[in-house]
Amino acid sequence: MKGGMGGLMKQAKQMQEQMQKAQEQLADEEVIGQAGGGMVQVTVTCKYSVRKVTIDPSLMEDNDAEMLEDLMAAAMNDALGKVETRTQELMGDITGGLGNIPGLGDMLK
């Protein structure tokens, strides 16, 4: 029984190390959210840090602030959805589905 517990602790330590590496990888990894057919683009890290916003100059000519605001929101939402998907993919590879255990999934984030 003692050997089994030691093996379990070793696996937990390895998973913790893998998760730390994944967190570091996600901090540097970027996704690009788009709206308006790519006229508005937002580059975001997988740790939710906005790195860059690009707006097609033709959108500025129309002076339609409301449309530009809507496109910015849509691009941000697109980027954040991609961050969530990428984070789940990477963490799912490490946890092997442990995140589906009630209560445990929140601890793995």
From TrEMBL:
Where does the record say this protein resides? Cytoplasm, Nucleoid
> Low complexity bias located where?
8-21
Alphabetized SUPFAM superfamilies for the sequence: YbaB-like
Example of a GO cellular component annotation carried by this entry: cytosol
* UniProt superkingdom: Bacteria
- Note the InterPro entries from the entry: YbaB-like_sf, YbaB/EbfC
The answer, when asked if Cytoplasm is one of the entry's keywords, is: yes
Any idea which UniProt keywords this protein has? Cytoplasm, DNA-binding
Give yes or no: UniProt keyword DNA-binding. yes
A single Gene Ontology MF term assigned here is: DNA binding
Region Disordered: start-end pairs:
1-21
UniProt lists the family membership as follows: Belongs to the YbaB/EbfC family.
Q: What does this protein do?
A: Binds to DNA and alters its conformation. May be involved in regulation of gene expression, nucleoid organization and DNA protection.
- Subunit relationships: Homodimer.
Task: Specify the protein name.
Answer: Nucleoid-associated protein SAMN05661077_0214
Q: Which organism is it from?
A: Thiohalorhabdus denitrificans
